[in-house]
Design goal:
Bound molecules: zinc ion
Number of strands: 17
Number of helices: 15
Radius of gyration: 23 Å
Structural class: alpha+beta
Low-confidence stretches: none
Mean pLDDT: 96
């Protein structure tokens, strides 16, 4: 899992991790799809893929998310995999089905983001239930919203355009639609009611969008989490009713935490700050031009990875001192802690540097950047108010909850990771995952399942 996107040297452009120009969109609700997403770039099978391959009774696989990469990453190479396009169209692609699934179509006929136009987001609980202040001066005012509740889901054009969908994405309505669609398919596909084991995946992304704009201490983030709690409650109720208590196992986690808003910490006298990726690239491009001649040199800065054209990196390596000079220049930027190059990331040499060890897990030759930039703690390389993507505690500590059949209730102090979920669920489903990086969380399973 190298990142959300990378620089594709063959196509000479940035590509999303689930981008696939070879597929066509399949849209629901009588709308037209425009985006092209599919599992082509997935090089390993997902848990759902292995369930399909190994189980004697084929599983029904449903994966629903707002973000295509979340739906596809959970579902894998086949199944009912549904996402929401940037313009609010509920969609999949012909990588999964040649024609709209009738049950998704029924849902999308009366439910789509545009139906939420004009809604007003207010706090779910009384003001006293929220910590910190609502109108922190360090929060952003995304798309015309103020820093304080209430927030209206509207657009300056008075239509359900991209500006509206951006408001919708960071509101509770995003998670609500994804949850409602998952519950709709739980029923229509009769998941968990047949003789085999089925798979339902859903990803709730309102928190990510909100966290970027308002930071982790905001009332908006707290309110989204209250709504997530309600969504999980609805999911459990539906599973108990439609599948039955003790007949399903659920795993809940998050793919990352989030930084504080650096300006907020800096105002309190802490070492914190922001690096502009545009400035960073300009420093590197200017120096590379001086060292080896005209570019293009850098092509993409994404997920703290800096990607160069193949020709540029080749010239930098062949010119004595040039590669190291560029690296030293990045390391000299205030707020940068360390820079790793592709050779260090690809190496299997033992290292005592835990950050390097962590970055190596995400290194994919041909996809990862030529340099990884590690900012100092509480520094971010982003124009978002807050962001994630470092190996610091605030980014990497996430909840991990197992619940239901074969789970031994308790709190466990052994180190555990979201990567352990697939091997654990695979054990319960009777599926082998020989290539998985994680471990079976045996300490949390009933004795007969260990
Ligand atoms: Zn994010």
């Amino acid at each position: 899992m190298t990142g959300n996107d990378w620089y594709d040297r063959t196509a000479n452009g940035a590509t999303g991790c689930v981008g696939d120009t070879g597929v066509a969109p399949v849209a629901f609700g009588g709308l037209r799809g425009r985006e092209r997403h599919g599992p082509k770039n997935l090089r390993v099978p997902t848990l759902a893929d292995e369930m399909r391959r190994q189980l004697p009774i084929p599983p029904r696989v449903v994966s629903v998310a707002k973000k295509p990469r979340s739906a596809i990453g959970l579902g894998g190479h086949a199944g009912t995999v549904v996402w929401v396009e940037d313009l609010g169209v509920i969609a999949t692609s012909d990588a999964y089905t040649p024609a709209p699934w009738p049950d998704v179509e029924r849902f999308a006929r009366d439910r789509r983001p545009a139906r939420d136009y004009g809604e007003t987001w207010t706090r779910r609980l009384p003001l006293a239930a929220y910590r910190f202040e609502d109108a922190s001066p360090f929060e952003s005012t995304p798309g015309g919203w103020t820093r304080e509740f209430p927030h209206r889901l509207v657009s300056p054009t008075r239509s359900a355009d991209r500006a509206f969908v951006e408001q919708w994405e960071r509101s509770p309505w995003n998670d609500r639609l994804v949850t409602d669609l998952a519950l709709h398919l739980l029923r229509s596909r009769r998941l968990g009611r047949g003789p085999g084991t089925d798979f339902l995946g859903l990803s709730l992304s309102s928190l990510d969008h909100t966290g970027h704009a308002f930071g982790p201490e905001s009332h908006e983030v707290q309110d989204i989490l209250i709504h997530v709690d309600i969504a999980v409650g609805r999911l459990l109720q539906a599973l108990d009713r439609d599948v039955g208590p003790g007949r399903y196992t659920l795993a809940l986690t998050a793919d990352h935490g989030v930084s504080q808003i650096p300006e907020r910490l800096a105002a309190a006298g802490q070492d914190a700050g922001r690096i502009s990726s545009t400035d960073l690239r300009k420093i590197v491009d200017d120096l590379a031009t001086t060292l080896v001649g005209e570019g293009p040199h850098t092509m993409l800065y994404s997920g703290n990875q800096l990607h160069f054209t193949a020709a540029s990196i080749d010239r930098l390596r062949k010119t004595p001192g040039a590669f190291d000079g560029v690296r030293a220049a990045i390391e000299a930027i205030p707020g940068v802690a360390r820079v790793y190059d592709a050779a260090e990331l690809a190496s299997s040499e033992p290292t005592t540097d835990g950050f390097l060890a962590a970055w190596r897990l995400s290194y994919v030759p041909g996809r990862s950047g030529d340099f990884v930039v590690l900012p100092r703690a509480n520094w971010i390389v982003s124009s978002d108010r807050a962001t994630h993507g470092t190996p610091y505690d605030y980014d990497r500590r996430v909840p991990l909850v197992l619940f239901g059949a074969a789970v031994r209730p308790g709190r466990y102090s052994e180190p555990a990771s979201p990567a352990d979920i697939a091997p654990t669920l695979a054990r319960l489903a009777g599926v082998r995952l020989p290539a998985a990086e994680g471990r079976v969380l045996a300490e949390a399973l009933d004795a007969r399942e260990r």
